[in-house]
Amino acid sequence: MPDDPNPLEDPFICSLCGARSAGPGDCSTHSEEPLVDLRDQEVRLMLDKADWRRQRRRQVLLGLLVILGVSPFIVVSLVVGIGSDGVLARVAVWVGRIAVLVAIGSAAWLIRRFPAPRLLPPKLRP
Ligand SMILES: [Zn+2]
To answer: Domain-by-domain residue ranges, the chain?
Structure first.
């Protein structure tokens, strides 16, 4: 959502999709969803909590995707590392370490690159 200069110009917002309106009513996309008033502090807190929950869900999802992506390398490195000794075991341990580092770096990059959209305008955040 772009940073609007006057966040209260259209004070009514859909808590599902962020659609804005100058007056009360239902969301044009979600017909059963009444718009909430951004001028109400309780509404702002509720939207901020919902934004936070969406962000946490996105982080968990991206983390699970990364774990799924690197888990074959970790499993193979463990199996090979335990079942062998010498150079092969050391290589397997390093493959596992690199896979863990790639997972951590990828998850951090993905979370920064693909943040969950926030409905509450920046100027109204607590
Ligand atoms: Zn909506």
So the answer is: 12-124
